[in-house]
Amino acid sequence: MHLRGRSKTWIIVGSATAATLLLVAVPIAVKSAAPNGTTWQDLSDASQIYTSAFTALALIGVAASLIHQARQSKVATHELIRANQRELFTLTLQDPTLAPCYGPQSEQLTELRFKQIGFTNLILAGMYSAYALDVYSDSDLAIELTYHFRGEIARQHWEFRGPHWMAEAEHSEEKAQRKFTHIVNQAYQEAISAGPPVPPSQYFLP
Looking at the chain, which terminus has fewer C-beta neighbours within 10 angstroms, N or C? Predict the structure, then answer.
């Protein structure tokens, strides 16, 4: 431990010495490389210009770092929300008596269909997370929703839960949320116009 402490001391002393020599050597080297007649004042003026440029670059770097940190924080928040939703839904699957703790549907559902609607809501929540984090573009989302709303349960989910999604988006400060629900509702309307959905009974071979 003592030797390691002495090693650290020598490293600190060596680094300080190297930094001091560098500070002394660089100006001398620059002066030597400068054209004849260049004064120390000229070099000082030039150094101020370079200093301002490097400061601006450093500020840009700090701003980029802050933006990255904010994005990472947003990602962590979305993942936390989704994890909480998954846990609540899992508990409901394990104990259907918890289902009435949710707000009632616009019409009565079988227990199976309630589970399917709830699972579909998680799927759509995952799409929203991907869209809000710029993983999905508008066109990516539209393509995904075209396939999504071919299914009967997906359409029934939006019929029941769509008004709730849109009401939340209307009062949200998140532009992405408002745009997301608009794209989803448009895709739903287009799917309705395209024809009847595929029922669950046709998803698998007999």
Answer: C
93-111 b/e with 16+ CB inside 10 Å = b?
Answer: eeeeeebeeeeeeeeebee
Strand partners, 24: none
- In this structure, which amino acid lies at residue 86? R
Surface-to-core class of residue 180, CB atoms within 10 Å of its CB (0-12 exposed, 13-18 middle, 19+ buried): buried
SS3 content of the chain, % helix, strand, coil (to 5): 80, 0, 15
Does residue 13 surpass a pLDDT of 80? no
Which residue in this structure is represented by tokens 């019929």? 159
Distance from C-alpha of 14 to C-alpha of 11, rounded to nearest angstrom: 5
pLDDT, one tens digit per residue, over 100-143 is: 887 776 678 888 888 898 889 889 988 998 898 888 999 999 99
Nearest to 103 by CA among 167, 192, 188: 167
Q: What is the pLDDT of residues 142-184, one digit of tens each?
A: 999 999 999 999 999 999 999 989 999 998 888 888 999 999 9
Is the CB of residue 199 less than 8 Å from the CB of residue 155?
no
Looking up tokens 């400060």 gives 173
